[in-house]
Amino acid sequence: MSRVPVAVIAGILGFLLYIGAVVALADLVLPGHWTLHVLYFTLAGVAWVWPASRLMYWAARK
Q1: What is the DSSP track for 7-53?
Q2: pLDDT digits over 10-49, tens only?
Q3: Nearest-CA neighbor of 22 among 50, 45, 49, 39?
Q4: In Å, how far are 2, 3, 10, 43, 53 from 47, measured between CA atoms?
Q5: Model's pTM, two decimal places?
Q6: Are 30 and 37 in contact (CB under 8 A)?
């Protein structure tokens, strides 16, 4: 079996779980100052890139 379909399924499921975790944790950040919001959502918006790139490299490897 090719790695690409496995990576696609793992990527989609992982991303959905990541979104759920970020939204659930955002409830803890909402009462805070607006700068905390900016920092949290900036980090949350960028943090998924590293695992996604590792998954793509793994899928493309022969």
Answers
A1: HHHHHHHHHHHHHHHHHHHHHHHTTS-HHHHHHHHHHHHHHTHHHHH
A2: 999 999 999 999 999 998 888 889 999 999 999 999 999 9
A3: 45
A4: 27, 23, 17, 6, 11
A5: 0.82
A6: yes
